[in-house]
Amino acid sequence: MLYRKIESPISNYFASDTDKILVVTGARQIGKSYIIRYCASKYFKNIIEINLITDSEGDRLFDKVHTPDDFYIALSAFTSRPLGDRNDTLIFLDEIQVYPHLLTLLKFLREDSRYRYVASGSLLGVTLKKSSSVPLGSIDILKMYPLDFEEFLIANDFGRDGITSLRDHFRNLTTVPDGIHSRVMNLFKRYLLVGGLPEAVNKFLETRDLVQVRAIQNTIAELYRIDAAKYDVEHSLKIARIYSLIPSNMENKKKRLVYNTIEHNKGKRADDYEQEIEYLISSGIALGVNAISNPKFPLCETEQKKLIKLYYNDPGILTAALYHNNPTPVLNDDNGINLGSVYECAVACQLAANDNTLYYYDNRTRGEVDFLYDDFDSLSVVPLEVKSGKDYKRHVAISRFVSTEEYSIKYAYVLSNSNIVETDGKIRYVPIYFSLFFDNRLYKDGPVLI
Q: pTM of the entire structure?
């Protein structure tokens, strides 16, 4: 079984006596159902899993359910197994976005308190945005992503002690030994090819065959497009177009989405594609990075949603689109190919998995910096620049950024292939895999007493 960090908060939820209902959201094929089943099996004697996509394509038992009594009647028709009570019985509503009215019903099922409940959904982010009756006081929402690089390391038998050692090097700003650096970079390059979709990772571990891995990635990317086509005819074509433009946008000097290229119409603006972009981000198949031109901590106070960069939710899907079955551009650091967009995608995925809202710096005078990070320990903004080549010390924009007094920048990071950790003024040069440790997950620490 693949190690997933989300196992901890899900298990803690099942072990608690909370009466709120956990809702796990995220893109398709990232392992939501599997990890919920695995965690639930440790706490409940009876687990009833209802796949609502299957129900919608079959008997539609839950289509007209609007009250707890309706639900229990449908449940009795779904299963004849004897059930207990909330102490030993869990009802798992998988793909709950198929029936949005069931989200509203969760409030009343919670109040009735006959059983414990958990829900998940692959397009739940979209449904939550569109629904006007989401019972926010009755649910806890947990966002899930594909495997991040830390989980990929563990899957490839790089031990947790090794990750702890890397974290110590990050905290102390010390150089990683050559042998360890070589091992981690070897796995990082494979992560760029394989990505974090569980089926792709398992196939890689089983076969080491990139062709088979690519077949899985391409199938899942096609599923994402099929899901988009279900949205409606007017928007689905635009969604598909924007999604297909992500790799080419990443190769531009200015990586943000250029709205007049989507339909080749110079009159188009951000507002014309608000719903399509919201779909891509809320469904979990793309990561949105909003611009900041005048950074202040916390960054949410100064974001500009109209200047947005989009990344795929998985670096493996990106390298499949860029290089197909050829691994050499990634594995051999081909000098003729710029891997900057691929490295950036991996960092974006890591930052998102670490519960960071994604921002970048865009200033007409001072240039663009790849990412901005809210450091809640120092209460300051930390710029991050991602470099894939040997000229990682060439960075005009970040140098201008840290020297701007009004930003009050304490330090910045340049992440690259090099294992040399050094500091030059306010700029810290560190290995690319140190992106693991820019972490704002709420559930990684213990209680904070005030």
A: 0.94
Question: Any residues with CB less than 8 A from the CB of 155 and at least 6 apart, and which?
Answer: 2, 3, 147, 201, 205
10-residue mean pLDDT profile of the chain (450 residues): values are: 95 95 95 97 97 96 96 96 93 94 94 96 76 78 96 97 96 96 98 98 98 97 86 81 88 80 84 90 94 90 84 97 95 80 97 95 90 91 92 89 92 95 96 95 63
Q: Please give the Cα distance from 264 to 252 (Å, whole number).
A: 17
